[in-house]
Every structure is written in structure tokens, then in C-alpha cells.
Amino acid sequence: MKEKQTRKRLDAQTKEYILKSVLEDGAKVSDLAFKFEIGSSTIHKWIKDYRESKNQDVTRYFTSSEVDKLQAAFDKKLRDLEEENEILKKAMHIFAKNPE
């Protein structure tokens, strides 16, 4: 009796890895299809879909709460970087005064 084949589902990270390998690194579709046990036609479809989505004008709209969250995250990152910068400035002065 022949076993029923189930479709192999790959997560988004693996799919992204395969796309980058083909498009940026020049990997062969057939090699990746064999490695991940998927059809090469599947990878070709992903590439086609990716290229079509890149060509579309993608506009992302944010709600006011999303904007507030992003702004808060950016403000925190800025404060952290400014604090880090001050620490590095102080360390630079300490090491400049005490050459070993």
C-alpha cells in the first residue's frame, strides 16, 4: 500500500532564508528544494510572489496607539544611547589621563 504524502509546511524564517539564498547568494533552487524536501516549483512561486510584492507600492498605516508605542520605544532607545555615549566619554577621559 502506498503511503499518503503530507505537505511539508515551512515556517516564515525558513522561507525567508530560502528566498535570500536564491536571490542574494545565488544558490540553486534545485539544491535548496532537495535540502528542504520541497518542490522546486514551490520555490519558484515564492520568488515570483516576492518580486511581485516588491513591485507594489506598499504603504503602511499606523493607528495612533501604534504611533505612541513606536515613539516611546524610539525615545527610550535615544535615552539609552545618550547615556551610553556619556559613559564612553567619561571612560575616554579616564583612559586618556592614565596611559599605561
UniProtKB/TrEMBL annotation:
> What is the designated name of this protein?
Transposase
Q: Which Pfam families match?
A: HTH_Tnp_1
Q: Which residues form a coiled coil?
A: 67-98
Q: What is the lineage of its organism?
A: Bacteria, Bacillati, Bacillota, Bacilli, Bacillales
InterPro entries, A to Z: Homeodomain-like_sf (IPR009057), Transposase_8 (IPR002514)
Establish whether keyword Coiled coil is in the entry.
yes
Gene Ontology molecular function, alphabetical: DNA binding; transposase activity
Task: Write the record's keywords in alphabetical order, separated by commas.
Answer: Coiled coil
User: Which organism does this record belong to?
Assistant: Solibacillus silvestris (strain StLB046) (Bacillus silvestris)
